[in-house]
Design goal:
heterodimer; A: alpha/beta; Rossmann fold; 7-stranded mixed sheet; 10 helices; 9 strands; B: alpha/beta; 2 domains; 5-stranded mixed sheet; 13 helices; 15 strands; globular
């Protein structure tokens, strides 16, 4: 049997998503962004909505998301993506509009924008990458940094007396009447990535139903910022991040 | 004959937006311009033209909604007053950096800080020189009447789309609150989707198979890429300076003394010129209608004709710097201003004029 006999459509269980571009990703090996990008690209392709989708990228590592997924993109100022997406969706209600934001962008400088987009019930999708650290600027404390966690600006560990407490933003926005679907997922195993994909797809589907904002938090790793190997970062995330940010659905207004 | 309606300058902005095919307005309440959004909400244009009107949670958010709408190739605008415009400066820099069209109305009040809610012209420097970080210019239009408020919305969008550049209508509390007759020109429809694709092929409205993806960004990490972009902007700004300067002159033909004033101050200075002429003093007025591009050449030309110039502004002296740049020392340049919401009377300016020129 030669390789060509194996490379038949019925045998393919995994392939590169059609909507991922040929650009080499700048993300560190082990970073969750690559996996989440792939899931988003697959979903847009599978739903056949490339022509109707507009992405809004943040400031942070995923500022360059527009280099990797073959759709129209708007690059927002730091934290402002939900406001940018609000106008885009209001002016083009038949489009699928999503923001892709990290924890520094969404949970720190952009809290007003995300809270009020949620409160207004904007029919957009928010994908929130929470790795508890500022990746792009070199590993500083984020609002989501765990107590005791060492970062460039908490070199002795986050001390609540000095730095306050971690912000659990998905639970906060779940309290708002304008949100429709709030879930927390991860992509550290194939099984987790499959669940995350189903959640993101549901969020995209909800955004065309006029039921409000859908928010998918992905508890993620930043092995460079955390100064760990990718494998150790995944283990650390399961042991520590999941304790503060447990995975699972938080709110689903259409659940039967 | 076109319809004439008595309305406030702020209301004229709102009515003009609806009648000139604006697609979206995103705003936040602030005195003295709240009538803009109030009028829009009362008119409910989403039921007639389909225009979107949304009250944002802050000026920061409203300018970023404008950014989002502009990314889609839509005619989008906001309005605010001085402290709110300060919050919008981040967004204006991004809009300039992404080369997006939009119209922003600043109905100026006195500052700095929370300041006063009374009229002022103290945002001249902020709006013409530095409304945000980085090397860029807003195109700045200075209305002097409710009619100008009405007309400049459409003119603003024309310039904004022609140059893919933010346009600021730099108004003030007098022009915003004053009621005057406004002539309503025939209404224009909003652009169709096909028209948007034609005038804004860069718009991010979903990527069809027929083209590459559109990306709206102001990010350029490489020095050479950023510099090339800055140079591209320079070419655009030179073109704007070459083609879009607009000003009006009043009794300048034989003038021996010139007033330079914009917006509400130019209206007051017309009365000053009349008064001085009645006393046999040949005064004239140049009113810059565009503050960027500024009428440097025209003021330079008049500098060779008059004995002196005076810049009259409701601030501590901001535009006067541009007047001096234009004059280059060829004649004395004076300044008179009031602040805090106080407004000069024509008599007060006449007195200051006589003092500055050692006349009786």
């Amino acid at each position: 049997m030669n390789i060509e006999d194996i490379k038949r459509p019925e045998n393919i269980v995994y392939k590169r998503p059609a909507l991922l571009t040929d650009n080499v990703m700048h993300y560190c090996p082990g970073c969750s962004h690559g996996t989440v990008h792939k899931l988003v690209a697959e979903i847009i392709d599978e739903m056949g909505i490339q022509e109707k989708t507009v992405g809004v990228c943040p400031v942070g590592c995923s500022v360059f998301a527009y280099n990797y997924i073959d759709i129209d993109w708007q690059e927002a100022a730091h934290g402002r993506a939900p406001a940018v997406a609000t106008a885009t969706k209001r002016l083009y209600p038949d489009k699928y509009v999503f923001t892709y934001q990290g924890d520094g962008d969404l949970a720190s400088i952009g809290t007003a924008e995300i809270i009020h987009a949620c409160s207004r019930g904007e029919n957009i999708v928010v994908i929130f990458i929470n790795n508890g650290i500022y990746g792009m600027t070199g590993g500083q404390m984020a609002p989501t940094t765990l107590i005791g966690m060492k970062t460039a600006t908490t070199p002795y560990g986050r001390d609540p007396k000095l730095n306050g407490f971690p912000l659990v933003i998905a639970d906060m926005v779940a309290q708002l009447d304008g949100t429709a679907f709030i879930t927390r997922q991860s992509v550290h195993t194939a099984a987790a990535a499959r669940k995350a994909k189903a959640a993101i797809r549901k969020a995209f589907e909800y955004s065309s139903k006029g039921v409000g904002l859908s928010f998918v938090e992905i508890v993620s790793t930043c092995n460079s910022g955390w100064k760990m190997s990718p494998v150790d970062a995944n283990k650390w995330m399961v042991e520590h991040m999941f304790a503060k940010y447990p995975v699972g659905d938080i709110k689903d207004v259409l659940a039967k | 004959m076109a319809e004439k309606i008595l309305m406030k300058g702020n209301e004229a902005i709102a009515i003009s937006a609806i009648r000139n095919g604006v697609d979206g307005y995103f705003g936040y309440p602030i005195t003295p311009q709240s009538e803009v959004m109030e009028t829009l909400m009362k008119e409910k244009p989403w039921e007639t033209t389909g225009m979107v009107v949304l009250q944002a949670e802050s000026e920061t958010s409203s300018i970023n909604m404008v950014y989002g709408g502009a990314c889609c190739g839509k005619k989008v605008m906001t309005s605010s007053s001085s402290p709110g415009v300060s919050l919008m400066c981040e967004g204006l820099s991004y809009i300039a950096g992404a080369e997006l069209p939009c119209v922003v109305v600043d109905v100026m009040r006195g500052g700095p800080g929370l300041g006063t809610i009374q009229p002022s012209q103290s945002d001249y420097n902020q709006i013409t020189k530095g409304s945000g970080h980085g090397d860029f210019h807003n195109i700045v239009l200075a209305p002097a009447s409710a009619q100008d408020m009405y007309d400049f919305v459409d003119w603003g969008f024309e310039l904004a789309f022609k140059y893919r550049n933010p346009v600021i209508i730099l108004s003030d509390g007098i022009i915003g609150q004053m009621m005057e007759k406004v002539e309503l020109h025939p209404a224009k429809p909003r652009m169709t989707e096909e028209e948007i694709l034609k005038v804004a092929p860069w718009a991010t409205v979903g990527k069809p198979a027929s083209r590459e993806r559109n990306i709206i960004t102001s990010l350029a990490l490489e020095a050479d890429v950023q510099e090339a972009f800055n140079q591209k902007l320079k070419v655009k700004y030179r073109k704007i300076e070459e083609n879009e300067v607009k000003y009006s002159e009043y009794m300048t033909e034989d003038a021996e003394y010139l007033f330079v004033a914009f917006g509400c101050s130019s209206r007051i200075c017309e009365a000053v010129v009349d008064e001085l002429r009645s006393r046999g003093i040949k005064a004239g007025l140049l009113r810059p209608i565009t503050l960027y591009p500024f009428p440097y050449k025209e003021i330079a030309r008049l500098a060779g004709q008059v004995k002196s110039m005076m810049s009259i502004e409701l601030n501590l002296g901001q535009m006067v710097d541009d007047v001096r740049l234009a004059v280059e020392g060829r004649c004395p340049v004076g300044f008179y201003g009031r602040q805090g919401g106080n407004i000069y009377s024509p008599e007060e300016i006449v007195e200051q004029f006589l003092k500055f020129n050692n006349l009786k």
